[in-house]
Amino acid sequence: MHTYLSAGAAFVDPAGTVIAADPGFLAGLGLEGGDPTGALRARAEGSPALRALLAGEGPPVARLEGADGEGTVELERIPASAGALLLVRPADGQEWLEHAARSDGLTRIAAGVAHDIKNPLNAMSLQLALLAEKLAASPEASGAAASHLGALRDQVVRVNEVLRRLVDVADPSAPLGYTDVGALLADAAALLGHDARRRRVALAVDAHPGAVRSGADAARLGRLLLGTLARAVATTPEGGRLAVRAATEGEWAVVRLEQRPGDPGPESGYYSGVAAAAAEALGGSLEVIREGGEQRSVLRLPRNDRS
């Protein structure tokens, strides 16, 4: 049994003639649709790995350049009595699946931890109220303890607010039929505020609840925003500035991130690819524009102004 993220498939007979190929297979390898057999053989002439795979003489999976030399794809050959099934997929497709599984698992853990912390906090609030009642019998004791009790109440409220933001971003809901992009972005930025301050990154946020709405899935969008913003904070050098903004532009709900990032790490392309694929799956797009030392990331999502 094969588990994969497949972009396209084709079936070839023992002579290497392409019996059938879907558009994803042709696009993934950059083959012309008029003569897929000739195009596949022509490409194999310049690729020993592809030539060996088609002949069944090499490993069952080969890494090849994608269409127009952009990116890398994996081509898998699955033998059959009448020929072979060829599957083409992004080379990092398996990593994307693992990333998605890890993200889903962490979301569930975050929601569970928040619930486990919230119960003791509620108990603390109740005990503080009972303690204040008992102290009220002694005006002197009540007055002496008032500031301390108030400080404890404030801290409980503060922790409750952090937990609310965590749950709303990690596992948000959309009971009214739309996702509040402004609220999600504001909460994600608040959760990352400590990390930004620790890195001495000035995080400027222009996002307001109710102002920008999308029809995109709330949970998936929450993870995308949190991951994208966390990556932006991590790649902004110490003392730098990161500006994020949510707005509506025509039929799109748009999130813009502007920064002057440091040197890209070896995993920058992987993270960009995962985020772009996630945006596309939500019916939108993620565009990264670099001009000089500045970088603008523009996330576009289907807009939904349903009340």
Give a written overview of the molecule.
The protein is an alpha+beta fold. The chain has 3 domains: 8-91, 2-Layer Sandwich (Beta-Lactamase); 95-170; 179-302, Histidine kinase-like ATPase, C-terminal domain (Heat Shock Protein 90, 2-Layer Sandwich), CATH 3.30.565.10. The chain contains 9 helices and 12 strands. Strands 2-1-5-4-3 form a 5-stranded antiparallel β-sheet, with helices on one face. A hairpin with a 2-residue loop joins β9 and β10 (252-259). It is elongated, with a radius of gyration of 26 Å. It is an enzyme of class 2 (transferase). Residues 112-291 form the Histidine kinase domain. InterPro entries: HATPase_C_sf, His_kinase_dom, HisK_dim/P_dom, HisK_dim/P_sf. Keywords: Kinase, Transferase.
| Helical content class | 40-55%
Low-confidence stretches: 1-6
Order of strands in the sheet with most strands: 2-1-5-4-3
CATH class of the largest domain: Alpha Beta
Q: How many structural domains does the protein architecture include?
A: 3
What is the CATH T-level topology of the largest domain? Heat Shock Protein 90
Number of strands: 12
Kindly state the mean pLDDT as a whole number?
A: 84
Quickly give the structural class: alpha+beta
**Overall geometric form:** elongated
Q: Total number of helical segments?
A: 9
Question: In percent, how much strand structure appears in the residues?
Answer: 15-25%
EC number: 2.7.13.3
Organism: Anaeromyxobacter dehalogenans (strain 2CP-C)
Keywords: Kinase, Transferase
GO molecular function: phosphorelay sensor kinase activity
